[in-house]
Amino acid sequence: SVDIISAIEFDKSGDHLATGDRGGRVVLFERTDARGNASRTELERQDYSVPRHPEFRYKTEFQSHEPEFDYLKSLEIEEKINKIKWGQTANNALFILSTNDKTIKYWKVQDKKVKRISVMNLDTSQSADNGTTSSSSTSSSRGLPNGGSSEKSYNCANNDLPFPPGGYASLRLPVVTGQELNPVARCRRVYAHAHDYHINSISNNSDGETFISADDLRINLWNLEINSQSFNIVDVKPANMEDLTEVITCAEFHPTHCNTLAYSSSKGAIRLIDLRQSALCDNHSKLFEEHEAPGSKSFFTEIIASVSDIKFARDGRHILSRDYMTLKLWDLNMDSGPVATFQVHEHLRPKLCDLYENDSIFDKFECCLSGDGHRLATGSYSNLFRVFGCTSGNTEATTLEASRNPMRRQVANPTRPTRTLTSLTRAVRRGGENAGADGNGNSNDFSTKLLHLAWHPTENSIACAAGNSLYMYYA
């Protein structure tokens, strides 16, 4: 289905949310709750803070990508949006980077006034008796895509429009007035023909001027204003492709240090590179990986070790990584191993053969962190997602279902809500306490999977995509 959501992202302020789908569309939502609009007098009257949950409404949508065909390689390029990233807001305009497998586009979304003609020389109401459409000179007119307007009754070529004897004593210029504001999306740049392999990630730099795009073997650095060339900063392609042992799976810039970025690989490694060291950053400055225990290697070891997503914490000190079985939290100052590991799919270990047969073992689940860095989340099967507390001494976890009735799966197995994690939409369920299907004895539905989710940058709110539905959960 073309309307299945394939990407989701909050902007830096948390006031806007963007989703992309398999049909190449980008849909924008804006926050509507009156955050901080109360007067000082009203706030002083309140002896307690009123909890206000963020509410979002539809703003606009636009077609970002169309299906294409590469005639040189006889390859179809689908329109599915792989990633969305927000740029810096300027002059009340929103800037968005979106990409499919091959092409990145830079969009500007801004509210434009729809211009309409409100005063004309001809009084078209007199032409009603002649069978033409009656309309007052100040009536609203149909807007055109270019911002103008169109009215059949203003067509001077229409012979039914009456002219007074001797014509008009004076002519007035038509008055064009701006009416309601409509958001208009315009493509400012197209960054194409720079990747031989499928683009898996894009990331904006904190300098506001550059961004990176990564495919399986290369990472390119772009200037937002220049789409004619990019700089290849990482190239892991071997001279002989038969010697290829790992590929790039994800790449992301540091949130504050514009010279630092991290990328993950299919072998479970995360490499930190410094753009100041050299033009081609094939040599990493730090390597984060967890070595397997001796004798524990199996056919699936390398497959489930592949990192599907990485995210920097907002403070820039930690990196969160997601592989098929676990979430791992890394400290940039400690590359000997993760500071914490959270089990997500340990109950699926006996089913790895079946998961390999139906290709589910290659599903790429995303991860996210809360703005304060105290919690983290990732998706699973049966439209479930897990929320973990990652502060010192907090080992509790919460499992939620993305549905209109998040309590539905709890009836058969009620449990005591956790004290550390607040109740997200009052749907609390302990997870990871037994080796049941999903930690609670519920069987997994591998056809429904929650791959994409994003945490609000400043509040305890999570947006997650289940199929073609978007769910908002708040604490």
UniProtKB/TrEMBL annotation:
GO terms for cellular component: protein phosphatase type 2A complex. Residues 147-156 have a biased composition (Polar residues). The keyword Repeat applies. Residues 125-156 are annotated as: Disordered. Keywords: Repeat, WD repeat. InterPro entries: PP2A_PR55, PP2A_PR55_CS, WD40/YVTN_repeat-like_dom_sf, WD40_repeat_dom_sf, WD40_rpt. It comes from the Eukaryota. GO terms for molecular function: protein phosphatase regulator activity. Residues 132-141 have a biased composition (Low complexity). It holds the Pfam family WD40. Belongs to the phosphatase 2A regulatory subunit B family. The B regulatory subunit may modulate substrate selectivity and catalytic activity, and may also direct the localization of the catalytic enzyme to a particular subcellular compartment. PP2A consists of a common heteromeric enzyme, composed of a catalytic subunit (subunits C), a constant regulatory subunit (subunit A), and a variety of regulatory subunits such as subunits B (the R2/B/PR55/B55, R3/B''/PR72/PR130/PR59 and R5/B'/B56 families). This is Serine/threonine-protein phosphatase 2A 55 kDa regulatory subunit B.
